[in-house]
């Protein structure tokens, strides 16, 4: 899902979710808009990775399935939007060029040529886009007709979901197509004029021009509030459909999420006034009206074969927004399942030896309400976790594991446990026989 961070000297109006959906992805969904531009930063949450556009128009992607290339953002471009999908990403430059990258085995990257794009969205294994003239296209895997965009329509937005797609025309008509024998996500409520419709994994959500919020399709089988059960008595600015949950922002800035909550993704940080919230696979992100960027959920259980794809990126993990890239207030990454927890690593022996001892320092950000660190867990390339309890408790603790180098780069993952028994997300570093390469 994409969320926009206000830039310095600009009104704090998000270009995603609240004002205009630029590109949001939940598990395999993404949403689009038509008014993105460089200077309006945004963040897009995919299945197990995230992408963003900085205030300078730089495109970034981080985390993701190793080897799939979700982080291979085309270089030398100034971006207006980037959408993170299931295992691929798509984006549009400020000049209207369209690009897709990552896992493109089903034709997700076969963008129609000769078009100037306002937005392109990344779904499960298909992509959709709208041109500046209102033409709508979908491409990639056409199982169940998800690429069969209704003809003779002028589109304002088309969203690529799991096995279906949805769109809104310039006249406010809402349409969905392709369903793979799934229940009801194409049954757009009749008699409505739509501001936005978002295709989720097996359900859809939308907001009418009067602020009514509706979701339809599969209502899930969790013990939580069903994903299509929109909280009542609210006037909505946006609603986004995720994997098995949904999130929305009311016109008063209240942020709400509902549906499956296995990773804490339906519990936004409290005490915030939101301009945008985007639902992802098992985590969500949002922007407050004061310019904070926050992510939550993703219970820290991501296996280590999901890794940062962009060398030198300052962040690892689903909840870790790159710092120093976004205008406005500093980005703060939080999780309601565990406090903000960071880690650092430094070599303590000759990095050219075959066995290297690392000093691992893990600390909790007390200023954001973190609890003390009680345990550090790390993974090396053998794939087995090693646990150690930090002595005496505290906000900063060190541990010195020993790992064996192998040819090429070696990945090293770490997470920490707090005094309430909750884990942080994984943080990953890389080093080689020539030395430490950084986080």
From TrEMBL:
GO molecular function, one term: protein serine/threonine kinase activity
Keywords: Disulfide bond, Glycoprotein, Membrane, Receptor, Signal, Transmembrane, Transmembrane helix
Subcellular location: Membrane
Region span, Disordered: 298-319
Swiss-Prot/TrEMBL catalytic activity: L-threonyl-[protein] + ATP = O-phospho-L-threonyl-[protein] + ADP + H(+); L-seryl-[protein] + ATP = O-phospho-L-seryl-[protein] + ADP + H(+)
First and last residue of the signal peptide: none
Cellular component, GO, one term: membrane
Gene3D superfamilies (UniProt xref): Regulator of chromosome condensation 1/beta-lactamase-inhibitor protein II
Enzyme class: transferase
Membrane topology (UniProt): Single-pass type I membrane protein
Keyword Signal part of the UniProt annotation: yes
Name of the protein in question: non-specific serine/threonine protein kinase
């Amino acid at each position: 899902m994409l969320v926009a961070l206000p830039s310095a000297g600009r009104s704090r109006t998000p270009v995603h979710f609240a004002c205009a959906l630029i590109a949001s992805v939940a598990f395999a969904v993404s949403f689009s808009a038509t008014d993105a531009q460089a200077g309006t930063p945004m963040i897009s949450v995919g299945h197990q990775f995230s992408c963003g556009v900085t205030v300078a128009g730089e495109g970034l992607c981080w985390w993701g399935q190793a080897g799939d290339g979700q982080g291979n953002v085309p270089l030398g471009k100034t971006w207006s939007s980037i959408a993170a999908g299931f295992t691929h990403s798509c984006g549009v430059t400020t000049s209207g060029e369209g690009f897709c990258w990552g896992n493109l085995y089903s034709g997700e990257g076969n963008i129609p040529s000769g078009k100037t794009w306002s937005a392109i969205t990344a779904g499960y294994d298909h992509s959709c886009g709208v041109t500046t003239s209102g033409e709508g296209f979908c491409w990639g895997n056409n199982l169940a007709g998800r690429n069969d965009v209704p003809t003779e329509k002028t589109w304002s937005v088309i969203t690529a979901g799991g096995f279906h797609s949805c769109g809104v025309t310039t006249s406010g008509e809402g349409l969905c197509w392709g369903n793979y024998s799934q229940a009801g996500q194409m049954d757009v409520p009749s008699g409505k004029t739509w501001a936005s419709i978002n295709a989720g994994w097996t359900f859809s959500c939308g907001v009418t021009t009067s602020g009514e919020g509706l979701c339809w399709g599969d209502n899930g089988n969790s013990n939580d509030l069903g994903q299509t059960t929109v909280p009542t008595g609210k006037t909505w600015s946006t609603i986004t459909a995720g994997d098995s949950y949904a999130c929305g922002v009311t016109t008063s800035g209240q942020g709400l999420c509902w549906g499956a909550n296995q990773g804490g993704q339906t519990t936004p940080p409290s005490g915030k006034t939101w301009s945008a919230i985007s639902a992802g696979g098992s985590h969500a992100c949002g922007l407050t009206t004061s310019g904070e960027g926050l992510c939550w959920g993703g219970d820290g259980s991501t296996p280590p074969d999901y890794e940062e794809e962009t060398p030198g990126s300052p962040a690892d993990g689903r909840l870790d927004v790159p710092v120093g890239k976004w205008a406005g207030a500093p980005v703060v990454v939080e999780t309601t399942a565990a406090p903000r927890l960071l880690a650092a690593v430094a070599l303590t022996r000759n990095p050219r030896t075959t066995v290297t001892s690392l000093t691992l320092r893990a600390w909790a950000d007390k200023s954001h309400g973190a609890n003390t660190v009680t345990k550090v867990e790390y993974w090396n390339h053998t794939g087995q976790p090693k646990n150690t309890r930090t002595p005496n408790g505290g906000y900063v603790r060190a541990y010195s594991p020993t790992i064996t180098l192998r040819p090429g780069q070696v990945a090293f993952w770490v997470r920490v446990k707090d005094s309430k028994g909750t884990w942080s997300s994984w943080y990953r570093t890389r080093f080689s026989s020539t030395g430490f390469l950084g986080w």
